[in-house]
Design a protein that fits this description.
By secondary structure, the chain is mainly beta. The protein has no helices and eleven strands. Strand 7 and strand 8 form a beta hairpin. It starts with a strand and ends with a strand.
């Protein structure tokens, strides 16, 4: 049972990446899914979350209009499209799943966490 992130890398400012979060051993259908990031010396912050029920989404103010979260239950995968990337978007991006999370905060996501994927935005 695990979550595995992929798609991180080094990109220039203004560039794009698509992160994937694939689940194995359990179905994401019944879980809220969140993407969180942690920059060196900073606390982990909620970037975007998607509800298991109505597909409702949340975005941090810093990424609104640039990032898009989506889920493909048939592939048991959640995606985070990152556009117009800025140096301040640099960090390790984690996906997490929780059955009952009510807010997009890391302490509410307790069930499953991935190992993280590094995103570096630099010229």
């Amino acid at each position: 049972v695990q979550l595995v992130e992929s798609g991180g890398g080094l990109v220039q400012p203004g560039g794009s990446l698509r992160l994937s979060c694939a689940a194995s051993g359990f179905s994401l259908d019944y879980y809220h899914i969140g993407w969180f990031r942690q920059a060196p010396g900073k606390e982990r912050e909620g970037v975007s979350c998607i509800s298991e029920s109505d597909g409702g989404t949340y975005y941090a103010d810093s990424v609104k209009g640039r990032f898009t979260i989506s889920r493909d239950n048939a592939k048991n995968t959640v995606y985070l499209q990152l556009n117009s990337l800025k140096p301040e978007d640099t960090g390790v991006y984690y996906c997490a799943a929780d059955y009952i999370a009510t807010t997009c905060t890391s302490h509410e996501y307790e069930d499953y966490w991935g190992q993280g994927t590094q995103v570096t935005v630099s010229s």
